[in-house]
Amino acid sequence: MMERNTMQPLARFEKLYSNDRHLWRLIFLIIVWMIFIAITRFSRFYSLLNFQTMAAQFPEFGLMSLGVMLCMITGGIDLSVVGIANLTSILMAYLLIQMTNASGMIPAYAIPLVFVLAVGIGAALGIFNGILVSKFHIPPILATMGSGELFTGICLALTKGNAVSKFSRTYARTINNRIFDLIPVQLVIFIVMAILIWFLLSRTVFGTKLYMLGTSATAAKFSGLKTDRLLIKTYMLSGVCAALGGMIMLANYNSARADYGTVYTLQCVLIVVLGGVNPVGGKGKISGVVLAIILLRMLETGLNRFPTISSYYISLIWGGVLILIMVLNYFTENTPRFRKKIAR
Amino acid sequence: MKKVIALVLLVLLVMPVLFAAGQAEKKGGYEIVVVPKDASNPWFVRMKVGVDEYAKETGLNVYQRGTPQIDATLQAQLIQDLIAQGVDALCVVPVDLESLEPVLGQARDAGIVVVTHEGAALENVDYDIEAFSNAGYGAFIMDNLAEAMGGEGVYTTMVASLTNGSHNEWADAGVAHQKSAYPKMQLLDAEKRVESFDNGDVAYNVAKELFKKYPNLKGIMGTSSYDAPGVARAIEELGLIGKAFTSGTGMPLDNAALLESGVVKSLTLWDPALAGKAMIALAVKVLDGDKIEGTVDLGVDGYTNMKFKAGSDTVLEGEGWIVINADNVYDFGF
Predict the structure, then answer these.
(1) Interface list for A 190-219 with B (CB within 8 A)
(2) What is the mean predicted confidence (pLDDT) over A265-276?
């Protein structure tokens, strides 16, 4: 169907498609799924409340995915995002407890303050990762797996495995709020971060360098890029994203704990790959990752509308979609090259 | 083009299955969803048996929906999805109490009835169901031990640790029950309470030592699910089968061999299938607008005489304990 469109003489349209095959495929899948839900479960899916719920649900792991994406573009990965998120949220939860007064209120400056501090902590933890990867040349998968364990370990030691809560509910209420009674605050935080990263990737030298580094680390080094600093900055950004994800989790669950969101590590990697980021590095767009995040949330929420579909199938369908996309990628990524060869 | 056709075919293939799934939903009455800690744990698979049975008996649109893994965040998101979907009641077995409070609050704000199980400390609930009161369960374990011991002899109690709240309440209640109901039994004065640290090996070693040190010791009342099985191994090894006895909480399949060989006559437990049914029955009562006060009869075995926990107006306690012996050990699937 989508190909028939592109076969039309509209060359501009074809170019649009062939530039972003991956993107279009994700959009196509989302539309198919939306039509399917519309046919089967219209009234239970297409409600304002449902879309608001979904928009409030995905920012926490969406933000972590953005960080993983940045690292993957450089050819690395960040498996410590959940550890960073939990460590940040636990530390901030302790701070919020300190600031909560006897009547259960926190001063007005408390919320901006914890966010600024959270960004700082996330950046610091990210820099730690970056140093491990760049200065000590530890493969990113091992370095971040190790640091992730370390951060989770610190969380466990701090909390003895218990949930940290009993801070003023004002914090959770503020973040769980909806602007103009319509847009969830969590979504706004996500959008701001996504635009920032989009800008960095596509409008700044930093972004260009990132893609260069991912395409060929050796070439990047010989062309005079300061790869160490570049990597440290990338992991720092990832840490900041993860920390913000942690702050949203802190609000959504009104508590922090060492083992919240442990399933997100794998989920983030899946989203990023599904979003069309090349696991070897050098390729990938934020738009793809954002679409993948939306697709995942819609699939999961949609499937929850079918009581008879056991949740075992959620993993099955999710895995199926991922493999389907990668197989389709193989075909579309290979055919143009094939065609070019013939043309030559 | 080929891949597009393939994709369309795939979608067409999947559609009927999902459609069929969709049609099944058209049952009248309330929509009540049971959310366990996860979907694959045998304990909650057993709970689903009860939920499905209830749906069949009443024709209500009742079903169980769990997350693929035990995870507090996944459970919260599933509940949010169900709230957005506008179900009538939610019956939840919480993974983590703290993280669920705001979500359950959202549910209640949306006018959804919330019933929980094993969440006595939760605030944002209509009611919480506990299978039993700690005192009642302790007395029940004592009944089982006394039956095995023939109502006489020296015994002692075992808990995971002396600081564990519910275990010690069970043990205290067991001892109190023995004093009033089994006067010929006697608590070992030298060591009234021993610790197993929730570890079968520790329970085994402690029991071995006790039986050697006090030859007249005839029974050990276990509380944690590792106590009685560990003690049983000691009884078996010391050749005391038929002379020394134990009873306490225990999982059926793990202890099938012990029960079948007669080392342990009975273990005690509660049945998640019945707990699931009881949660739904209570939710239906609340939806129907029935007053929940005094003693509550949910029409489910062991939950016919539920009473509010002292000092609480949300926590209801039943008498939902069951005996596990050689006859029914394979009935539960866990």
Answers:
(1) none
(2) 88
Domain boundaries, chain A: 60-334
Residue B333 lies in a domain: no
Under a CB-based contact definition with an 8 Å cutoff, are residues A322 and A273 in contact?
Answer: yes
Q: Are B116 and B107 in contact (CB under 8 A)?
A: no
Nearest to B118 by CA among B279, B297, B299, B290: B279
Do B81 and A307 make contact, defined as CB atoms within 8 angstroms? no
CA A261 from centre of chain: 13
Mean pLDDT over residues A170-192, rounded? 88
Q: Mind listing the pLDDT tens digit for each residue in B93-106?
A: 988 888 888 899 98
On whether both B158 and B197 belong to a single domain, the answer is yes
Distance CA A303, CA A298 (A): 8
In a domain? residue B59:
yes
Nearest CA in chain A to B78: A304
B252 Cα distance to chain centroid: 13
**How many domains does chain B contain in total?**
2
- Those residues with Cβ within 8 angstroms of residue B98's Cβ, 6 or more apart along the chain or in another chain: A163, A165, A253, A254, A255, A257
Could you tell me the pTM of the whole model?
0.78
Cβ under 8 Å to B: A residues 31-50:
32, 36, 40-41, 44, 47, 49-50
The better pLDDT of the pair B25, A205 is held by A205
Q: Are B56 and B183 in a shared domain?
A: no
